[in-house]
Design brief:
about 1450 residues, seven-stranded mixed beta sheet, 24 helices
Length: about 1450
């Protein structure tokens, strides 16, 4: 209404959230404009059409304020402070001292008051004397100048100094007013937008009262308050001698302040806000949505664009370009009636060719979809309406549950009718607190009911060291209880007890999840960790937890989290993790980049902003350069030239895939659309100049027949208009039909037919002879197209090739076994662009090395000779220049992955994705990089993957965690997405209602299984009892997880269990009611399981167990198993916070262990848990393997301790020694094979653990040899080396695991020659133990006067002090005789003993042993005849 005080109209808002016109000063109430209407839009509103855009107008204003300050009282108060300070402190104590840390606040204040003149001189020049008008003028010109703000401070400081030096005893009556009055006039004019004016205009108008305000009243009020509180005498209250004087100084400031002038004059201009048509102007900055304008066939190929009308709420006006002139174009639309039979219109879709209807009261949708489809490309534009039938849904009366609401309450018009039920008090849902029961009108009104109510859990009145104090049920239906611990104990694991569910004996059972009471944290944090020093430490009295924060030295940054806390399960120990300090490198930002320059005012140590020159623009709107502080490498923005012509982002049925100056590359959506032949032959590129586009304007044309992008076990490799080229995976045993092979894989359209025939991949395999001349077959490739052979005694493979292969015609190329013959002479071998390596040869081959800028072709780098010594193969050196790829790219980094063509793979940083290929390409002829990948920023905050393009469709609209999808002509979204107008949303890491995809019109029941899913790919597609399915596999480290909807539905089906659901759906995609139900590949951290396979080669899983069941069965085991289980449970709690309830429930039903059996005729290679496989924390798994019974064998190990008598534990087991092995077949033989030695080349601790587990221990590690360890019995045969290169990927395997690798020693010698040669000191030796928590390492050094036994003990990466551990002793020995002299211990040095003239003594070996009671923790030995060899040390992990 009218508000005369401010000379105009005040447009009121209805409420805070209903914000209408926000500015003042209009001359008519009619000009009150609506600013925002989102609060009143409904689900039925067209958000993009009905939502009001921001107002575009601005309010201009003039502002003048003049604050003044009478400094007389302030000057008098400062003098009193100085006098009081001079009484309290000596002259020396009042001199300013920069070392303030040791002084009390009172003295610091007095030093400052005593040094006003010195402070002014240091801050301002001695002769500084600027006037305020000059200072404010400079600030107006440059508000960011530090010098200008320094002048403003000097102005105030000078007035304070001047008044403090004058005689103010007569309240400044003796002074000129200019000497004690300070005035700072501020005057300017500016403007503000509608949003800002909503707040500032009313505030600034009310601030006019400042002119009449008595600021001295604040001082009087402060005095009264202190008097009331009894603290008027601040000296008595604080103990400071100058406290009262400081109080008076503080009160003098408001006494002297006044506002001499305050003027704020806003000015409203009608034309700034209003258009001539009477509509308000709106800000139109969102661009046009090309998908909202359907154009007729006659207009295909036209360059379509639009303008947004700021005077019509940004309505789009469509046009096309002709000779640089805008020509209007009409978008196709259909006329949807307000009513249909038994239904009414809800809304029309954005593109005006689709609409949603709802049924009248008493009617429901027959097929659960209310969408009407218009045949907009036909002449009559006929409409296919949904069908409404009479409602005959009969909702069930359910045991222990009550119906809460139905679809009418939720306004769920476009769905199947449904009702929501809730379990009654005392009961809870087996799967959720409420369940949707659906009615299917199109299936005879069938009721789908999955709700099961089970009896709730009971919370005990007491837990160990605690009691229940509260119990109840929340609004979401979940039961809870609150517990309190006894004094000095604290709740752990959870704050509230809750009812959860478990699957037991084929049914759901409610269980109580309880907290536990634990003592407070008492761990002590180390002062330093890897260069980082402790910076802060704290203790939380409410939770009993301790924490610490670490910081790196100045100039260094930290890699890893700087926070540490005590271990939850053992509060006396620190929960350690890796951190590292690294030196931060400075970056140098160039003054200029191509097309741009650096902005000096916005250049910092680790970042700088660049501006592009005229005619250029920042690529991806990124103008900032970043600095990699690890490498000092700079990531620069790019300025690209602005086009002088128009190359559209989207074309009908296609899109712009790549953009350069005045040129762009285009591609088409869908498998049946192609670019014109001349554009396709140009790689999809078009160029433009002015209005001309060459070779022509881009568009997509539809093939006359269907040429699929993907075929089972193959793919389409090239596409042109009405023709395509295909490839089958020959390596996996698949080939194209003969007719297509004769056309080099090409097929073409003749009308609607594909010629010469429809592309498909046919399986083929070959028959291999069991024997070849002088050799026999040992194994066969599972694909059926390869086999391996072994030559008879006295023969060898020609060119060292032992594999037979066959082609698609079944022709087999066998290897040849030739007589070994004499050693060949390669002395005369001449290699073009290369040379032989005489130090890397054997009897029949020699390695070839290429010259610079050349490389070996096909990786075959050895020359071979035949049985008569003639050269049979010479490697080829082909031209090859390596490219030097940078370690990092903008928002990404280089990996170690390489390709044969010289490419290197890159990864994007978190929050970014690749725009195209993730590989950098190299032109190996020139050594120049031909393509670098680019990392684009994902939409910030999305929790799941919402792809920009889908097969046969695209994403036209995107918001936070939600996106809308559309399909191209001839394709449609599945029913679940159509009923949501194409929208999908992120629910945690999942897309809801399903992953976006398109199905062919009329074939919704014929599901499409994509070849690639996020994080994985299809490996097989087939048909079982008439139902189509596909099998998928995830790329590491992603974890395969069944589709949640399908899994939960299957598990809840009568008679089915979670076990059955996983067996049926793990790794499998199925078709359900026309929908493709795909499994998902999820990050290990979010998955919480590992995707255990239900089948293995020649075997299958027969039993599954979930993590909760595991916990119950294994909880009694000691050692780190229980600790790992607890950590898994904590990690699951962290993951739960990121999941919805259904996902949590499903993840808890995922198996963490599986028992496997082999098919008939095959035998199992067991894991350390027998026939069971299990999940690891990193998302990997360990599973057993099946091998044919006739080929099955296992490696048997033993440890040879020699003369080391102490390498035997109390149970008589040898726990350390030289490793010996032999291969024992399953069938057995009359004589056992000979024992063989292992060579430690490539050997690792994980492999040592695998050996020890076969001997009954739980862990193992490598250990160096000692002389005694190698002693053999006089009559014993010295074993030979039989194995080398033994290593394992994980520390929980047996040697037969697929995660372990080894090579026969003779094969390694044949392939690598002397590089594989092993000597006596290369013997493999291990130490075995049962717990890996406590680790001791021992080494020995000596000089003429001292022997040092450096014993270091660690527990969970934390160094222990052996000197404080009772019962731990060290023994020093010369030639196994103990030295009876005293020794000492220091934590950093270990044990040491002083001796005299050690080097003059006669001895062979010095050694030291560290014991804990009767157990030897570690030993080190140093022998004189091994002075130039590494010392023989070993250690014990306990």
């Amino acid at each position: 209404g009218i508000n005369a005080e401010y000379g105009g109209v005040h447009c009121n808002a209805c409420a805070w959230y209903k914000s209408t016109t926000p500015f003042w000063g209009m001359d008519s109430e009619d000009l009150c404009l609506e600013r925002d209407n989102e609060w009143k839009l409904t689900d039925e509103s067209d958000w993009d059409v009905d939502r009001l855009r921001d107002l575009a107008g601005e309010i201009s204003f003039d502002m003048k304020i003049v604050p003044t300050m009478n400094m007389c009282g302030v000057g008098q108060a400062i003098k009193k402070v100085k006098t009081a300070c001079e009484t309290a402190f000596s002259d020396a104590e009042l001199e300013w001292n920069d070392e303030l840390d040791d002084f009390k606040i009172e003295r610091i204040v007095c030093m400052g008051a005593h040094s006003i003149q010195r402070g002014f001189t240091e801050m301002c020049d001695a002769g500084w004397n600027k006037q305020w008008d000059e200072i404010f003028s400079n600030l107006e010109d440059d508000m960011e100048s530090e010098d200008n703000w320094n002048d403003a401070l000097c102005y105030v400081f000078k007035k304070v100094r001047d008044v403090a030096e004058e005689d103010t005893s007569s309240d400044c009556a003796n002074l000129d007013e200019s000497q004690y009055m300070m005035s700072m006039k501020v005057q300017f004019d500016a403007s503000m937008d509608a949003e800002t004016s909503a707040i500032l205009v009313p505030i600034m108008n009310r601030l006019r009262n400042l002119k009449t305000m008595n600021f001295a009243s604040f001082a009087n009020a402060g005095k009264a308050m202190m008097r009331t509180m009894g603290i008027e005498d601040m000296k008595a209250f604080t103990g400071w001698n100058v406290a009262n004087e400081l109080k008076d100084l503080g009160l003098e400031i408001p006494k002297g302040f006044s506002m001499a002038e305050f003027n704020f004059d806003p000015a409203y201009e009608r034309s700034s806000f209003m258009c001539e048509n009477g509509e308000p102007r709106r800000e139109c900055d969102e661009g046009c949505h090309r998908d909202r304008c359907k154009i007729s066939k006659e207009d295909n190929g036209k360059d379509i664009d639009c303008n947004l009308d700021e005077c019509a709420n940004c309505k789009a006006n469509w046009f096309w370009w002709e000779d640089g002139v805008e020509k209007p174009i009409e978008c196709v639309s259909c006329d949807f009636p307000e009513e249909m039979e038994n239904g009414e219109l809800v809304r029309v879709n954005h593109d005006n060719v689709g609409a949603e209807y709802r049924c009248n009261e008493g009617f429901v949708l027959e097929h659960c979809s209310g969408w009407a489809k218009c045949n907009w490309d036909s002449e009559d534009k006929s409409i296919e309406f949904p069908k409404c039938v009479e409602d005959q849904c009969e909702w069930p009366t359910m045991d222990h549950a009550t119906k809460r609401r139905d679809w009418r309450d939720d306004r769920g018009w476009g769905t199947c009718p449904y009702a929501m039920y809730t379990c009654n008090d005392g009961w809870m849902a087996a799967e959720d607190y409420q369940r949707r029961v659906e009615c299917k009108p199109g299936e005879g009104f069938k009721i789908e009911n999955n709700l099961k109510c089970i009896e709730r859990c009971n919370f005990p009145e007491e837990i160990e060291n605690g009691k229940r104090v509260e119990e109840g049920r929340r609004e979401d239906g979940k039961y809870y209880a609150k517990y309190e611990c006894e004094e000095d104990l604290y709740l752990r694991d959870r704050e509230w007890a809750e009812c959860d569910k478990e699957w037991r004996e084929d049914k759901h059972v409610a269980v109580a999840r309880l907290p536990r009471c634990s003592p407070p944290d008492t761990c002590e944090f180390p002062k330093e960790i890897n260069g980082a020093e402790i910076d802060d430490e704290w203790y939380d009295d409410e939770t009993g937890t301790k924490g610490a924060r670490y910081r790196c030295p100045d100039g260094m940054a930290m890699d890893g989290s700087d926070h540490f806390h005590c271990n939850r399960d053992n509060p006396s120990e620190v929960e350690m993790h890796d951190i590292k300090c690294y030196e931060m490198k400075q970056c140098e930002f160039p003054d200029e980049i191509e097309g741009g320059r650096r902005v000096d005012e916005e250049t910092y140590d680790h970042g700088a902003r660049y501006e592009c020159n005229e005619g250029y623009r920042a690529q991806h709107d990124n103008s900032w350069a970043g600095c990699d502080t690890r490498t000092g490498m700079v990531h620069l923005p790019k300025c690209e030239q602005e086009d002088t012509c128009h190359l559209p982002d989207h074309i009908d049925n296609g899109y712009r895939a790549e953009k350069q100056y005045n040129r762009a590359r285009y591609d088409c959506h869908g498998e049946d659309w192609s670019l014109p032949q001349d554009i396709a032959e140009n790689g999809g590129w078009v160029e433009c100049e002015g209005t001309e586009t060459t070779p022509q304007h881009p568009y997509c044309e539809q093939d006359s027949c269907h040429l699929p992008t993907h075929i089972n076990n193959g793919m389409r490799t090239e596409k042109q208009s009405n023709r395509a080229r295909y490839y089958c995976n020959n390596d996996s045993g698949f080939k194209l039909p003969e007719g297509i092979r004769t056309t080099d894989g090409w097929v073409h359209c003749e009308g609607e037919e594909v010629k010469p025939e429809h592309p498909e991949c046919q399986m083929f395999n070959c028959e291999f002879d069991a024997e070849i001349e002088n050799g026999k077959m040992t194994n066969r490739d599972y694909t059926g197209k390869g086999a391996w052979y072994q030559c008879n005694e006295g023969f060898r493979f020609e060119n060292n090739r032992n594999e037979a292969s066959c082609n698609v015609d079944g022709e087999v190329d066998y290897p040849r076994c030739i007589a070994r013959g004499e050693r060949c002479d390669f002395g005369e071998l001449d290699v073009d662009n290369g040379h032989v390596k005489e130090d890397d040869r054997d009897d029949y081959s020699i390695r070839v090395e290429c010259n610079e800028d050349f490389r070996i072709r096909d990786g075959k780098d050895r020359a071979h000779c035949g049985e008569n010594g003639a050269i049979t193969f010479v490697p080829t050196c082909e031209p090859w220049k390596e490219c030097e790829f940078p370690e990092t790219i903008e928002n990404g980094y280089r990996t170690e992955d390489r390709r044969e063509d010289g490419g290197r793979r890159f990864e994007c940083n978190e929050g970014f994705y690749f725009e195209g290929d993730s590989w950098a390409h190299c032109d190996t002829d020139t050594g120049e990089i031909s393509h670098m990948p680019e990392c684009m920023r994902r939409d910030e905050g999305d929790d799941c993957h919402l792809p920009e393009h889908i097969e046969n469709g695209h994403r036209p609209e995107k918001h936070h965690n939600k996106a809308r999808y559309e399909c191209h002509d001839g394709w449609s979204l599945p029913h679940s997405l159509r009923e949501r107008d194409g929208w999908v949303e992120c629910h945690g890491s999942e897309t809801h209602p399903e992953h976006p995809h398109c199905v062919r019109d009329g074939e919704e029941g014929e599901c499409h299984f994509p070849d690639v899913i996020f994080g994985g790919a299809k490996v097989h597609e087939g048909d079982h009892e008439g139902e189509r399915y596909a099998m998928y596999w995830c790329f590491p480290p992603f974890v395969m997880t069944p589709n949640k909807e399908a899994f939960m539905g299957y598990a809840e089906y009568p008679g089915k269990t979670a076990h059955d659901a996983y067996m049926a759906l793990a790794y499998k995609a199925v078709c359900h009611e026309g929908r493709t139900i795909l499994p998902e590949c999820i990050e290990p951290r979010k998955a919480g399981h590992c995707g255990l396979p239900t089948w293995i080669e020649n075997g299958k899983a027969v039993d599954l167990e979930g993590w909760m069941k595991d916990r119950e069965e294994d909880g009694s085991e000691e050692g780190e198993e229980g600790s790992e289980d607890r950590e898994d449970r904590e990690n699951m709690t962290d993951r739960d916070e990121e999941m919805d309830e259904d996902t949590k429930k499903m993840m808890k039903m995922m198996p963490m262990r599986a028992r496997y059996e082999c098919d008939e005729g095959f035998k199992l290679h067991r894991t350390m848990h027998g026939p069971w496989g299990w999940c690891r924390k990193d998302g990997s798994y360990e599973i057993p393997q099946c091998e044919a019974e006739e080929d099955w064998s296992e490696v048997e190990f033993k440890l040879h301790k020699g003369n080391e008598k102490k390498f035997v534990d109390k149970r008589g087991r040898v726990f350390a020694g030289v490793v010996m092995a032999r291969d024992k077949p399953a069938s057995g033989s009359e004589e056992d094979p000979d024992w063989e030695l292992g060579c430690n080349d490539g050997f690792n601790n994980h492999a040592a653990g695998a050996i020890c587990r076969t001997l009954g221990f739980r862990h193992g590690a490598q250990t160096p040899l000692t002389k005694k360890m190698q002693v053999m019995a006089a009559d014993a045969t010295q074993p030979k080396f039989g194995w080398t290169g033994f290593n394992c990927k994980f520390d929980d395997t047996l040697p037969s695991s697929v995660n372990c690798r080894a090579q026969r020693y003779d094969e390694a010698m044949e392939h690598k020659g002397m590089k594989a040669k092993c000597f006596d000191f290369d013997k493999m030796a291990v130490k075995c133990f049962d717990s890996a928590e406590f680790n001791v390492t021992v080494s020995l050094t000596y000089s003429n006067k001292k022997i040092t036994c450096r014993a270091m003990a660690y527990k969970e990466n934390y160094q222990m002090d052996l000197g404080k551990m009772e019962g731990v002793e060290a023994k020093f020995m010369i030639d196994d005789k103990e030295i009876e002299e005293a020794h000492k211990y220091k934590m950093k040095k270990g044990y040491f003993m002083k001796v005299t003239n050690l080097k003059k003594r006669e001895f062979n070996c010095l050694s030291c042993e560290v014991h804990a009671g009767e157990m030897m923790l570690g030993k080190a030995e140093r022998c004189k005849d091994e002075e130039n060899k590494p010392m023989n040390d070993w250690s014990w992990d306990n």
